[in-house]
């Protein structure tokens, strides 16, 4: 009974996503889906292992470039291109993670940020990324040469299927014994070590998984916007995904979805006001940190449980 | 005679000089970051914005009040330092008992606000700030021409770093500060106002960043985004140097600037990434950084 009740909101969300394109502009929906998946991938690290990566744009953006190149130059199919982007991000994540988990806390954040900046300069200078122009007019070939996804209305179903797949992978990982160990590491690392867990290995696997899924999101984004550009790899993108997770609620399964919808919504509303988008994002950041650290979903959960408010993650 | 490994010497010296100048900014900025980190345990993401504000304040002083470079060198750091103190008192203070990550996120949000506000007001094209007349021209050193202003930047940065280092290592105030980073509770028990010390340190760090900004204004154009890309390099410098050490921050800053300059001569494409490559290598060998203690 409890299981069905907890599944109910998810079923409602699924239903809403199925009818949504008949009411809302599909490109906007797909943008929300991509960033929601990106934020979920990021949250897997911050929310469940307690590692703040400030370099996730590298995985998102580099996978976007690889998929765009695969679609445009190598003329691969959509699924093959997405798979290639995901794989590349995973390999990149293995390298970054291996280096970054040597340091903890704020150092970890700084190391991931600096490593991501390496990828930014690589993308700025490499020939295949076309520097400032990015890879534009990326084609949308049919899936397996059969299913036409060239217009946004049809593409939506592919994007929805892929993001749901990604989300299920994350949900499965979190609710597995592996996820339990990750939570144990977040709560008390020395204890996890003393219990005999190879903490660094768990952290690394989580990092690679998170990086690959961030790349998965980036590759899907290329299909939606038919564009891979420097914006995707810039460190502001890393900040944006932190913001989405923070607004929605760190360490909640649904939080990043809500956060992504809010941030993408704000960007759309204020798109014509120039730098105001940045200012508003900054204000929300400050407000989240000072006033509601649990985020929207975290506050809702706390309100429903009627617990006295206390600060998370001390 | 006139070239080394196929590189003409004047070109080589020119790049070393540019590297030293960049290194001066890295050193002054990472020094401030290290100070703030030592006492507040916060990675001050707003540091790049303070640097940018320093340049903007000196530009405003000239443009609006007609106050020139030399007074600005004092006034801009003072103004930005005071601004930093206000931010610390109002916003950072409530976060000290929480995870350090919240401090990083808050200062990141502040940086977005400051950058966004100035970009909204001034765009991204950059505003010119003339080199003061007393520092124009160039010295002939025999092997190269040294623009006076560039020499001054390196000298001023080195002197400021030395003064701050002496302040921390040789004075009583510095001793108290070092003690407070080790054990704030004990220092408090001796009747020392630790919160005030923390606030003052944050102000000093902000002022140092602004000082670098004023020095930078005549070299680079005054631009809302001038701090945001620099700060990432400074973070890498700090990781390489090791956060425990003031000296590490300064020496690594200068050294990496020069290495970056030399890379530009040998293999220009790598000059923007060389700092990060070195960071990766240092992490492999010494995860605590070159001068750092393991925490």
Automatic annotation (TrEMBL), chain A:
Residues annotated as transmembrane: 6-25, 81-101, 107-128, 155-174, 204-229, 241-267, 273-292
GO MF annotations in UniProt: branched-chain amino acid transmembrane transporter activity
Superkingdom of origin: Bacteria
InterPro entries recorded: ABC_transp_permease, LivM-like
Keywords assigned: Cell membrane, Membrane, Transmembrane, Transmembrane helix
Subcellular location: Cell membrane
Major location category of this protein: membrane
Entry membrane topology: Multi-pass membrane protein
One CC-aspect GO term: plasma membrane
PANTHER family reported in the protein's UniProt record: ABC TRANSPORTER ATP-BINDING PROTEIN (PTHR30482:SF17), HIGH-AFFINITY BRANCHED-CHAIN AMINO ACID TRANSPORT SYSTEM PERMEASE (PTHR30482)
Protein name: Inner-membrane translocator
Automatic annotation (TrEMBL), chain B:
GO molecular function: transmembrane transporter activity
Pfam families: BPD_transp_2
Chief location bin: membrane
Record localization: Cell membrane
Stored InterPro entries: ABC_transp_permease, BCAA_transport_permease
Biological-process GO terms, alphabetical: amino acid transport
Transmembrane segments: 12-35, 42-62, 68-87, 99-118, 149-168, 189-219, 231-259, 266-285
Keywords, in A-Z order: Amino-acid transport, Cell membrane, Membrane, Transmembrane, Transmembrane helix, Transport
GO cellular component: plasma membrane
Topology within the bilayer: Multi-pass membrane protein
Family named by the database record: Belongs to the binding-protein-dependent transport system permease family. LivHM subfamily.
The protein's name: Inner-membrane translocator
Annotated source species: Rhodospirillum rubrum (strain ATCC 11170 / ATH 1.1.1 / DSM 467 / LMG 4362 / NCIMB 8255 / S1)
């Amino acid at each position: 009974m409890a299981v069905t009740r907890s599944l109910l909101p998810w079923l409602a969300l699924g239903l809403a996503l199925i009818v949504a394109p008949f009411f809302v502009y599909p490109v906007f929906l797909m943008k929300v889906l991509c960033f929601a998946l990106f934020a979920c991938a990021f949250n897997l690290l911050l929310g469940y292992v307690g590692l703040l990566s400030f370099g996730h744009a590298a995985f998102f953006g580099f996978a976007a470039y690889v998929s765009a190149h695969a679609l445009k130059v190598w003329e691969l199919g959509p699924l093959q291109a997405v798979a290639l982007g995901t794989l590349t991000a995973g390999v990149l994540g293995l390298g970054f993670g291996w280096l970054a988990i040597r340091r903890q806390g704020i150092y970890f954040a700084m190391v991931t940020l600096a490593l991501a900046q390496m990828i930014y300069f690589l993308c700025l200078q490499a020939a295949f990324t076309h520097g400032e122009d990015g890879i534009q007019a990326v084609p949308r070939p049919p899936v397996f040469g059969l299913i036409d996804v060239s217009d946004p209305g049809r593409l939506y179903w592919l994007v929805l299927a892929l993001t749901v797949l990604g989300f299920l992978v994350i949900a499965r990982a979190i609710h597995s014994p592996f996820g339990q160990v990750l939570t144990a590491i977040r709560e008390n690392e020395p204890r996890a070590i003393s219990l005999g867990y190879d903490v660094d290995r768990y952290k690394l696997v989580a990092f690679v998984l998170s990086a690959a899924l961030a790349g998965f999101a980036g590759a899907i984004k290329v299909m939606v916007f038919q564009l891979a550009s420097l914006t995707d790899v810039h460190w502001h993108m890393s900040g944006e995904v932190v913001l989405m997770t923070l607004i929605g609620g760190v360490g909640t399964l649904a939080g990043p979805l809500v956060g992504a919808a809010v941030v993408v919504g704000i960007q759309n509303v204020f798109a014509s006001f120039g730098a105001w988008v940045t200012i508003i994002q900054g204000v929300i950041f400050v407000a989240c940190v000072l006033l509601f650290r649990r985020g929207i979903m975290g506050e809702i959960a706390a309100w429903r449980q009627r617990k006295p408010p206390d600060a998370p993650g001390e | 005679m006139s070239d080394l490994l196929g590189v003409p010497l004047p070109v080589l010296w020119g790049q070393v000089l540019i590297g030293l100048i960049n290194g001066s900014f890295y050193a002054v900025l990472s020094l401030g970051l290290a100070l703030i980190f030592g006492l507040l345990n916060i990675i001050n993401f707003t540091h790049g914005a303070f640097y940018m504000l320093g340049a903007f304040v000196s530009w405003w002083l000239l443009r609006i009040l007609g106050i020139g470079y030399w007074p600005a060198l004092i006034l801009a750091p003072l103004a930005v330092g005071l601004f930093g103190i206000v931010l610390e008192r109002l916003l950072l203070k409530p976060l000290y008992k929480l995870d350090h990550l919240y401090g990083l996120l808050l200062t990141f949000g502040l940086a977005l606000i400051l950058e966004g506000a100035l970009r909204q007001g001034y765009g991204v094209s950059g505003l010119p700030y003339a080199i003061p007349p007393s520092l124009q021209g160039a010295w002939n050193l025999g092997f190269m021409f040294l623009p006076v202003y560039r020499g001054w930047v390196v000298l001023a940065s080195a002197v400021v770093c030395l003064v701050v280092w002496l302040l921390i290592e040789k004075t009583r105030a510095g001793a108290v500060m070092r003690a407070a980073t080790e054990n704030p509770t004990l220092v408090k028990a001796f009747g020392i106002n630790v919160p005030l010390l923390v606030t003052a340190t944050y102000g000093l760090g902000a002022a140092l960043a602004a000082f670098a900004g004023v020095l930078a204004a005549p070299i680079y154009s005054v631009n809302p985004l001038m701090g945001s890309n620099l700060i990432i390099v400074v973070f890498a410098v700090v990781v390489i140097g090791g956060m425990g050490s003031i000296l590490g921050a300064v020496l690594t800053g200068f050294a990496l600037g020069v290495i970056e300059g030399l890379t530009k001569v040998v293999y220009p494409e790598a000059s923007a990434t060389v700092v990060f490559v070195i960071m990766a290598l240092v992490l492999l060998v010494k995860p605590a950084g070159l001068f750092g203690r393991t925490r």
